[in-house]
Amino acid sequence: MQEFERRQPLDMTPEEFRKVGHRLVDRIAHFLGDIRSLPVTKGEPPSVVRQAIGDRPLPSTGEPADVLVEHAAELIIEHSLFNGHPRFWGYITSSAAPIGALADLLAASVNSNAGAWSLSPAATEIELQTIRWICELIGYPVDSGGVMVSGGNMANFVCFLAARKAKAPFDVQKTGFSGTERMICYVSAETHTWVEKAADEFGIGTNQVRWVPVDDKLRMRVDLLRQAIADDRAAGDFPFLVVGTAGTVGTGAIDPLDDIADVCESEDVWFHVDGAYGGFAATLPDFRIDLQAISRADSIAVDPHKWLYSPIEAGCAVVRNLEHMRSAFSYHPPYYRFDQVGEEPAVVMADRSPQNSRGFRALKVWLGLQQAGREGIVRSIAEDIELARHLYTILQDRDDFEVFTTGLSITTFRYVPAGIPGDVDRDAYLNEINETLVTELQEGGEAYVSHTRIRGHYVLRACVVNFRTEVADIEALPDIISRIGLSVHERLTPA
Ligand SMILES: *Cc1c(COP(=O)(O)O)cnc(C)c1O
To answer: Which residues line ligand 1 (CB under 6 A)?
Structure first.
């Protein structure tokens, strides 16, 4: 072969990397310092954003990194919604700890493949320590088997698959489902939609999800759970899994986990806790009683990219007995020789989830946990909850709002104008006003809340998982909403 000099279109010299990197870090620092003065979002439609990105074919020749990175930073900061804005309270999406951004830079630079210990010595050991710390924080056995995944859905899927394998009355991995066996899982009517995806994708079938009704606090009715299991057994079906939610996505309700654990124990059914939102509140003294039964679960899903404020993506699945996790995910082909390094056994994280090659997600969580410490995490979560309750209190005192619930750091409410016409269905009218106003609020960029439905009522829903939110931000919200709400009301009901 002829000697040739390789041209390296994707490499950077250390000088170039330093120059481009420093400029980017300066830009990001400026953005973070500035975030409060920016709108939460510009509410631009897709066509505007597409146009800003530029509709052009893939360039055939390369361009210099400094120009590209600077352009990307401007583009992204200019056309993004900022969930780290102090007035963002939509869905359950947290502000992201800046140390997590630095962690991702470091992780990507070393680019460890955390699928196997030998490819990621430091990364795998740090991931294992992160999972132990997470267990410690929420009061789950530290010798459980865990894995970092992309988020709450994936964490719940991993646990669901471990449960499916552990409890199936036949060899589900080898034979698959024939369509005659029915394995049943039980969830409260308020459970996140991940369970439908899981039932569908993993062969259980969505018909086999039992949506157990909730009580007046939106918690699973355990008497009806017991009844449903008995009915299914009588019909010859096979109950295998109950999901208890530690903080529902709609209102932050916490299912009666201890009672559910009792049922699962006596029925020999897998007990999974979806703690994607509220799991970390278990570390607060105020929630110890409601959440301590997490420790009785066979598996638990938590979401560091919610209440540990890690940048997206960071979820974590933990199964009490590591063997249940390994038996659901571990396949060892001939080219596989990873579980020993020298004389010592080595952990293979690819044996714990559907992923093979894996990024170093744990680093941002590990650094954030150390930066805040247990006390810092407890304080941040407690303050988020206090702010949500404060919102409930100030809305309660106003006559242009009705409050519904406050649970964990979610408060639900609706705007109620004076002078609703006497000849309309009041509830339908309020649903319409609130639905219209939330869209205008979200697009306006002053503040951001989302919505849910409670017993048919369309309600606004503020979820504070945001270390940048101050009391003044919360206190500004009612006037912003009532101003928009009033203008909607005036349009719907001209004087
Ligand atoms: C957010 C959430 C999920 C989904 O988590 P993602 O990180 O968005 O995948 C599942 N369950 C509950 C209770 C949640 O709050």
So the answer is: 92, 151-153, 192, 194, 245, 249, 274, 276-277, 303, 315
CA 271 – ligand 1 centroid, Å: 18
Angle formed at CA 148 by CA 146 and CA 150, multiple of 5 degrees:
140
Nearest-atom number in ligand 1 for the CA of 313 is 7
**For the whole model, what pTM was predicted?**
0.96
Q: Distance between terminal CA atoms of the chain?
A: 86
Which residue, judged by its Cα, is nearest atom 10 of ligand 1?
Answer: 152
- Closest approach atom of ligand 1 to CA 192: 11
Distance 387 CA to ligand 1 centre (A): 21
Closest to 239 in 3D by CA, of 225, 226, 249, 229: 229
Span from the CA of 144 to the centroid of ligand 1 (angstroms)? 21
Q: How far is the CA of 277 from the centre of ligand 1 (A)?
A: 6
Which residues are within 8 A (CB) of 78 and not within 5 positions of it... i.e. 6 or more apart?
Answer: 52
- pLDDT by residue, tens only, the chain of 495 residues: 888 888 789 999 999 999 999 999 999 999 999 999 999 999 999 999 999 999 899 999 999 999 999 999 999 999 999 999 999 999 999 999 999 999 999 999 999 999 999 999 999 999 999 999 999 999 999 889 999 999 999 999 999 999 999 999 999 999 999 888 899 999 999 999 999 999 999 999 999 999 999 999 999 999 999 999 999 999 999 999 999 999 999 999 999 999 999 999 999 999 999 999 999 999 999 998 999 999 999 999 999 999 999 999 999 999 999 999 999 999 876 666 778 888 898 999 999 999 999 999 999 999 999 999 999 999 999 999 999 999 999 999 999 999 999 999 999 999 999 989 889 999 999 999 999 999 999 999 999 999 999 999 999 999 999 999 999 999 999 999 999 999 999 999 876
**Residue 139: which of 292, 327, 349 has the closest Cα?**
292
176 CB-side CA count, 13 A: 5
Instruction: Give 311 Cα–ligand 1 centroid separation in angstroms.
Output: 14
Is residue 356 within 8 A of residue 335, CB to CB? The reply is no
Nearest atom within ligand 1 for CA of residue 151 = 7
